[in-house]
Write a structure and sequence with these properties.
about 240 residues, single chain, 4 helices, 4-stranded antiparallel beta sheet, alpha+beta
């Protein structure tokens, strides 16, 4: 019986492949390592130390973060007046109380002068710097410029400052909040005002007519404290509004 040419060719291919596979040498550990070195060994000379890697990262110029607004973000200080001397001449002795805790701010800025009212300057400190001073010395500086200063310690409420000593005058104290601001407009515009609605407080009080408080931006661009523009109209107990 004669075998077709196509079938004969297929059989020849199978036989040839089987012989080749059988003749292939068995892979050993040594040959595998030699193959690995031949393939990846050329990269071994490019390895660097951890210190070199860190330096390369530190020296690389990083791309700045993009502001969501598309403008250049800058840190802006927002000032809030939290204490003011009762007279324009300032105070030269005694204790005083802030309108709110100094710990609610990133920084405190005080303004003072010498006892004779000259050399009006500012002094800055953070709550952490205050804590370090109190921990080491038992008191902290509220205001200091050259040879004049005002020092003491806040009470537990973080608002009432108990003066231990002074040879200066104090005029104003501001709480400063750091914010990311792209407008560059500062805290407020001189003469600008804000209002808020007030109500009667207390469990036995009822508001008949809401009141209103107002605060004004100073010439220096800082918000002043809230002032009562119109007090709320209140009644007590079972009284009726008129």
């Amino acid at each position: 019986m004669k075998i077709p040419k196509a079938l004969s060719a297929l059989c020849l291919t199978i036989i040839t492949t089987t012989i080749a596979v059988g003749a292939e040498e068995k892979m050993t550990y040594e040959k595998a390592m030699a193959s690995h070195k031949a393939t990846y060994g050329k990269y071994s000379t490019q390895s660097i130390t951890e210190a070199q890697s860190q330096k390369a990262w530190d020296d690389h110029r990083q791309e700045p973060e993009i502001s969501p607004s598309g403008a250049n973000s800058v840190i802006s200080r927002k000032y809030k007046l939290i204490w003011q001397a009762p007279t324009s001449g300032g105070i030269n002795t005694g204790n005083f109380t802030l309108t709110e805790s100094f710990r609610t701010f990133d920084e405190i800025v005080s303004f003072g002068t010498m006892d004779n009212g000259t050399y009006y300057q500012h002094f800055r400190f953070t709550p952490l710097e205050y804590d370090i001073a109190v921990e080491r010395k038992g008191y902290a500086t509220m205001y200091e410029r050259d040879s004049v200063s005002w020092w003491g310690k806040f009470a537990a409420d973080n608002k009432s400052f108990v003066t231990a000593g002074e040879n200066a005058k104090l005029y104003e104290i501001y709480g400063v909040t750091f914010t990311s601001d792209t407008s560059g407009s500062g805290s407020c515009t001189s003469g600008q005002t804000q209002t808020r609605t007030t109500y009667c407080s207390g469990s036995n009080l009822k508001t008949c007519e809401p009141g209103e408080d107002v605060k004004t931006c100073s010439a220096a661009g800082f918000w002043g404290t809230w002032q009562i523009s119109r007090p709320p109209s209140c009644v007590t107990g079972t009284q009726q509004c008129r």
